[in-house]
Amino acid sequence: MSEPITGRQHEISAGPYRAVITECGAGLRELTFEGAPLILSHDADEPAPAALGQLLVPWPNRIDRGRYAYGGRTHQLDISEPELDCAIHGLVRWAAWRAEEHEPHRVRLAHRLLASAGYPFRLDLAVEYALDAAGGLTVRLTARNTGSRTAPYAHGAHPYLTVGVPIDECEVVIPGDRYLPVDERMIPTGPARDVAGTPYDRREPSVLGSQRIDNAYTGLRRDGTGRAWVRLRGGGRAVSCWLDETQPWLEIYTADRLPGPLRRLGLGVEPMTGPPNAFASGIDLIELQPGHTVTGSWGIIAG
To answer: Mind telling me which Pfam families this protein's record contains (predicted)?
Structure first.
């Protein structure tokens, strides 16, 4: 019997929550609460469009012209976004991840990233998706440097929150005190700016309207547990995404270039350890030494 092109579909559930994680990229293909979607989804026999639900390792977002200097050498990555002449969203989102553990409410997948010409380093990666009937989804991503040299590292994830109506009609909360301006190729043009007095100030609930956003936020306001929260409310429903302190950056994308009916139906909420172009700028870049590990967590809950 043939499998879909995204590979094995790992289903987990707890109480009113259900999720499906794909072998391809260990991507979060579906997440529902009482049968209603909390994220934009795609068919199992379709590659994830616009990075829906994908993990972004060993860098999120873009590297300008795929070029960076590290360890006394200049490295050139393959250009995976030719229209903007950038390397985008890492090296593992189309790779096969193997399931190491699978229980009714959780699944753990792993992938070994071996050296390539543009990234001559070695990482062992693991991700756990776990559902809780009260607490929703928790995602825990771990990278261990199993190579012989210190590796530049950053990670992110790419879920799109949805409440089933266009985001123009929705109330949003984005917890960032500063946002990162970018040029026409989506590369940062300078340091992060204060959101106060700008359309990027979404720290209090407000209707999104037609505003277009494809920017990283930082200076994230956090609760007593260290979590920063993005909230989306509309159509009588609500969904929230949290990220832990490992991820001081948060990309928000209003899904303006998504195909057909998905356009502006979801809000891209991307926890990130570093900003766009971190490999070139060095800003918040993690230098992962041999034998060392870094772990970051984020999650989604209804309400």
So the answer is: Aldose_epim
Distance CA 246, CA 229 (A): 14
CA distance 105 to 279: 36
119 CB-contact burial (10 Å; exposed 0-12 / middle 13-18 / buried 19+)? buried
Pairing of strands 55-56, 156-157: antiparallel
pLDDT digits (tens, 9 = 90+) for 237-280: 999 999 999 999 999 999 999 988 999 999 999 999 999 999 99
The length of the chain, given as a count of residues: 303
The SS3 of residue 153 is strand
Residues 6+ apart with CB under 8 A from 7: 22, 23, 24, 96
Domain 9-302 top-level CATH class: mainly beta
| Buried b or exposed e, range 32-53, using 16+ CB within 10 angstroms | bbeeebbbbbbebeeebebbbb
Give the amino acid at 243: L
CA distance 40 to 159: 8
